[in-house]
Write a structure and sequence with these properties.
Elements (H helix, E strand, L loop, with lengths): L6 E6 L10 H5 L5 E3 L4 E3 L21 E6 L6 H5 L10 H7 L57 E10 L13 E7 L12 E5 L13 E4 L13 E7 L13 H7 L6 E8 L12 E7 L3 H17 L7 E7 L8 H5 L7 E6 L10 H7 L1 H9 L3 E7 L1 H17 L4 H10 L3 E5 L1
Bound molecules: flavin-adenine dinucleotide (FAD) and iron/sulfur cluster (2 copies).
One iron/sulfur cluster binds next to loops.
Length: 429
């Protein structure tokens, strides 16, 4: 009998939404990305999963993966011919193709294995449950009105506000300096929805003399403007002063944005995003789970629902917010959140580094509210949104799985319906 073939997770680019901005190719340290006049593609033999290309991609098209038999990995020629990504192969398809029916082996270079997966257990793939479709009642999102594919490569916005939304603490609190920046588009059209993002093009060039690539930021204000009726929007931007390994660094775009003065002009691309959108039907429930600046889209959705409620013309469902940060001082919008009526939104904070207190993460809070979340999981009118640091995603989806299983539900069925019905949205960076 032949030995079972190895299964690998292959990194791929979604040709439907890629805006061919070349960011990923210019960033990849090992030359794994290339393109022709049609598509950007990833060479499985070169990609070492460093993830450098993920957060700079303005559309999220780079953040795609398929499990395949290593010997049947998609070649560059195949990828160059695609108009859409191929469908996911089910575990049964893989086994039929010759893969082991046991825990799926992963033979390609992978990111660090999950701390949550016990040795010998299959790696939990949280991304597999994330929807790529919006909720059925979401409004139509306009995308890529300004950018590489559009007639206008960028739009000029004027800064009309820039305030810090985290407390100052310690030695000036610079490690948790987060700003609320308001941009106005004047007479130019820039229609957005809650959950979408925009690209900011920092001025100047990088250390190789190339223009800086655009960085993506989630919109923190509702569709009718930070100030209702104005053609403006807000962003929640954390000043990056150290890299993911804790080494000192001065993030190009985040520092540029946090230092802007009222009246300054900024080059913007977008809007981007067609699935992380809120439901619009009456009595639809929204569960928001976020860390740090992942609160931006949650602020947008909450504020839109607050405005609808104030209008008296819309019967909203439940809103639940699970919000994590290292400390209260680091949590953006802590003060304003406290002022929201308790019968409007059910808010839970988790702080992982409060001196003298046990570490608490959003997953811990979710498990404490398992009974309510189980009801939400079972209700097709509820939608779940996860946004923040990449490292939170798996723990949050595992918590949802545990809640479902604790209530006697079949997680694979629940997870599949969340994905299919556009009810679980993951945006982590
Ligand atoms: C879909 C999406 C939405 C996003 N929304 C927001 C948002 O609402 N608010 C926000 O502040 N950011 C958001 N980001 C992150 C943002 O796009 C930038 O990556 C971030 O601001 C860093 O850019 P920079 O130019 O300052 O740093 P760079 O100059 O690009 O990077 C400097 C160094 O810092 C590291 N680094 C990059 N990002 C971070 C980070 N977040 N924390 C710590 N180290 C980092 C890099 O690896 C690099 O080593 C989002 C990203 C994505 C993909
Ligand atoms: S993950 Fe790293 S090695 Fe792979 S394509 Fe992206 S930048 Fe290149
Ligand atoms: S960075 Fe994203 S949008 Fe730009 S070329 Fe790469 S995959 Fe496409």
């Amino acid at each position: 009998m032949n030995a079972p073939a190895a299964v690998v997770k292959q990194h791929l680019i979604d040709p439907e939404i890629c805006i061919r901005c070349n960011t990923c190719e210019s960033i990849c340290p090992v030359g794994a990305i290339s393109h022709d006049s049609r598509n950007y593609v990833v060479d499985i033999d070169k990609c070492n999963w460093c993830n450098d290309c993920i957060s700079p991609c303005p559309t999220g098209s780079i953040d795609n993966y398929r499990k395949v038999l290593k010997v049947k990995a998609y070649s560059l020629a195949e990828q160059l011919s695609w108009d859409v990504l191929p469908a996911e192969l089910s575990p049964a398809d893989l086994v039929a193709d010759g893969a082991s029916g046991e825990a799926e082996p992963v033979a390609a270079p992978e990111p660090a294995p999950s701390a949550l997966a016990a040795p010998g257990e299959p790696v939990f793939n949280s991304a597999a449950y994330g929807a790529t479709l919006p909720p059925w009642s979401a409004a139509h999102a306009y995308t890529n009105l300004y950018g590489p594919k559009a007639a206008e490569k960028s739009i000029t916005a004027t800064v009309v506000g820039n305030v810090r939304v985290t407390e100052v603490g310690g030695e000036g609190g610079s490690d948790y300096d987060t700003h609320h920046v308001v941009l106005d588009f004047g007479g130019m059209p820039f229609p957005v929805l809650e959950g979408q993002s925009i690209g900011i093009i920092p001025p100047g060039t990088d250390d190789k003399g190339r223009p800086h690539h655009a960085r993506q930021y989630s919109i923190a204000s509702p569709r009718n403007g930070e100030r209702p009726g104005y053609n403006n929007l807000s962003l929640t931007i954390k000043r990056v002063l150290e890299d993911h390994q804790g080494q000192p660094v001065r993030g190009v775009a985040s520092n540029y944005m946090c230092d802007l003065q009222v009246g300054d002009q900024v080059q913007v691309m977008g809007p981007f995003g067609t699935s992380f959108l809120m439901p619009n039907h009456p009595r639809s429930h929204i569960v928001m789970i976020c860390t740090g600046t992942g609160s931006a889209p949650m602020r947008a959705m909450t504020e839109w629902r607050r405005r609808l409620r104030a209008s008296g013309k819309f019967e909203g469902g439940k809103l639940m917010l699970f919000f994590g940060a290292r400390t209260q001082q680091e949590l953006p919008y802590f003060g304003p959140l406290q002022n929201l009526p308790k019968d409007f939104i059910d808010i839970h904070f988790a702080f992982s580094r409060t001196p003298g207190q046990p570490k608490r993460y959003v997953q811990d809070l979710m498990r404490e509210r398992a009974a309510d979340l189980a009801q939400m999981l079972a209700d097709p009118n509820s939608h779940f949104y996860v946004c923040g640091l990449k490292s939170m995603e798996e723990g949050v989806v595992l918590a949802l799985r545990d809640v479902a299983q604790g209530a006697g539900m079949d997680w694979e069925k629940v997870g599949a319906s969340l994905k299919k019905e556009g009810r679980l949205h993951l945006e982590t960076y």
